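User: I'll paste a sequence; please echo it back and then give the predicted structure.

Assistant: Echoing your sequence first, then the prediction.
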Amino acid sequence: MKISAQDLRDLQILKYYRLTRKWACKTYDLKDADLELLVYLDCKGRFTRKEFIDGTYTYSWDKNRWERLKRGGWIETWRHRNRTTIKYSIFKTSFKCSQLISRIYRILLGEEDLPTSERSIFYNNKSYTDKVYNKSIDDMIKDIDR
């Protein structure tokens, strides 16, 4: 079954993409480019370091991105190289990353709401921008067409 552009428009899946992306980045301490790159890599499944570098060409240059994502537990090694038969390591996105991306998809499809509790880092009213995002979250939750 092939999905058409009209099917995606009818689902309105991208209607709250920016708000959902901002929530994920602030909650999990990621940059926008990092999150989008993780979505790309999660779609690939397993990847090499070269494929990671190829995926970063469309994003702003960040020399420390690889180490930051590995240190943060977003990317893990699936198979180590051994210098004789296996010439390079193979990586995959971690379980933590897969769960975050699945949650983003559920939020975009309207199966789950963005958290609005007091414990939510994103829902704290500290700045004007936070208040604007909170209003957007409230409007998103009230939207019955989502």
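DSSP finds seven helices and three strands in the chain. Residues 95-109 form the longest helix (15 residues).
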